[in-house]
Amino acid sequence: MQHQSAQLRRSVLYVPASNEKALAKSATLACDAVIYDLEDAVGPEEKLDARERLRDFLNGGDRPHCEIVVRINALDTIWGTEDFLAARAVKPDAILLPKVSGPRDVLDADAALDETDAPRNLKLWAMIETPRAVLNLGPIAQLGRDPAARLSCLVAGTNDLAKETGIALTEDRRYLAPFLFQIVMAARAGGISVLDGVSNDFRDLDAFESSCTEARSMGFDGKTLIHPAQIAKANAVFAPSPEAIAEAEAIVAAFADPENTGRGVISLNGRMVERLHLEMAQTLLERAGTIRLKESGETDR
Ligand SMILES: CC(C)(COP(=O)(O)OP(=O)(O)OC[C@H]1O[C@@H](n2cnc3c(N)ncnc32)[C@H](O)[C@@H]1OP(=O)(O)O)[C@@H](O)C(=O)NCCC(=O)NCCSC(=O)C[C@H](O)C(=O)O
Ligand SMILES: [Mg+2]
């Protein structure tokens, strides 16, 4: 089993659906995915307008070519059902469910999509941002293994998690880290992708880069973002480095050497290399190739 999904999700930008300028800008940006937000970025007085704005924008001519996700208000709020129907109607790639408590929330959204005859490739993403979601991570993520369910990504909601638990959001995220690891582990067990939470201090790009590096080391596929200035750093950090590509190429070449045919383990530059490392190298090179294609403009995603 490989740990990273084929879909690139290095940089996933939240765009408040209430913000006309940000909506327009979103179509011009180099992020891998956009989350149009109807939830916490939109004040209660703006909710109805934001929904209409988003509908007009995504039905208009400037729809971005990257992966498109709509975050709705929770289905048990006064806005939830209308948001859900509006999101379904604008044909996103996924609907992001906020403040999920357990698998029931995802299954209910799944059933509601089935009732509208939604295509199977319309996926659900789930925010992990409440204590109950953390306690129910296993059963939530396991839905990723259910061919009838649409869950394809977990998103850490670190601001709400801090609010709900009292966990301090320090720059080094030392108190948050144990829960972030659990989110990654659950997503991998469920075979779905997983995104780190946002960095609120969007002007400090050095701190942001460190946070991306840490998230990559923790196993996240990418980072959720709040500002366009964060995109380039996330794209760079979550892409395989030139050194990692060179190492992967060396591993592939070593196993292709007729001398090593059929061998399970070889020695390469003083290190043990097994076939599992070959698989990892192949996945890394595939990802590097996908990024190259995307950045050469030959594909949008
Ligand atoms: C954080 C901001 C409010 C800052 O806004 P502002 O001060 O206006 O930024 P700039 O002047 O530097 O903006 C420069 C240009 O970039 C556009 N812009 C800014 N942000 C975005 C964006 N997110 N998407 C698209 N475009 C954006 C501006 O319009 C300017 O454009 P132009 O003038 O044409 O050059 C703002 O960045 C912002 O609102 N960010 C998103 C906030 C958000 O979505 N929050 C909710 C998600 S975070 C969360 O809830 C996670 C989770 O649930 C949890 O619990 O942790
Ligand atoms: Mg939140």
TrEMBL record:
Domain HpcH/HpaI aldolase/citrate lyase: from-to ranges: 10-228
Keyword Lyase attributed: yes
Cofactor names: Mg(2+)
Matching InterPro entries: Aldolase/citrate-lyase_domain, Citrate_lyase_beta/mcl1/mcl2, Pyrv/PenolPyrv_kinase-like_dom, Pyrv_kinase-like_dom_sf
Domain of life of the native organism: Bacteria
Family recorded in the similarity comment: Belongs to the HpcH/HpaI aldolase family.
Protein name: HpcH/HpaI aldolase/citrate lyase family protein
Organism of derivation: Nitratireductor kimnyeongensis
